[in-house]
């Protein structure tokens, strides 16, 4: 269970601070997340952050599988690109909107 409240903010746990309650209890989680589940988590996290702020794809990967999140980074990033293609999110790098497929290095995702 993820901690909540002022103590969490002081601890600086960015992931825990951004995971909506519906994702905390692990509901609808499977051993291998489907592309639909990845999209759903990306959208839920981005919506919870709002259009003025961004999320890192690793936040979605960690929400999907806290132990093996690194193996999910490539497919989560691919789903973020598909969401951008559908104009549901924007992918940014250093504050500028970029094409997630050609961007090298860290990207961020923001709801449109």
Automatic annotation (TrEMBL):
Polar residues composition bias: residue spans: 15-33
Short name of any one Pfam family annotated for the protein: DUF3253
Region feature (Disordered): 14-36
InterPro entries per UniProt: DUF3253, WH-like_DNA-bd_sf, WH_DNA-bd_sf
Domain of life: Bacteria
Protein name: S-adenosylmethionine tRNA ribosyltransferase
């Amino acid at each position: 269970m993820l901690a909540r409240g002022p103590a969490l903010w002081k601890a600086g746990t960015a992931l825990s601070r951004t995971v909506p309650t519906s994702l905390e209890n692990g509901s609808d989680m499977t051993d291998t997340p489907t592309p639909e589940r990845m999209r759903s988590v990306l959208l839920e996290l981005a919506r919870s952050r709002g259009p003025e702020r961004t999320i890192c794809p690793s936040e979605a990967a960690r929400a999907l599988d806290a132990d093996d999140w690194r193996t999910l980074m490539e497919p989560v990033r691919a789903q973020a690109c598909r969401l951008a293609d559908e104009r549901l999110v924007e992918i940014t790098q250093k504050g500028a909107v970029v094409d997630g497929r050609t961007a090298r290095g860290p990207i961020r995702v923001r709801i449109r």
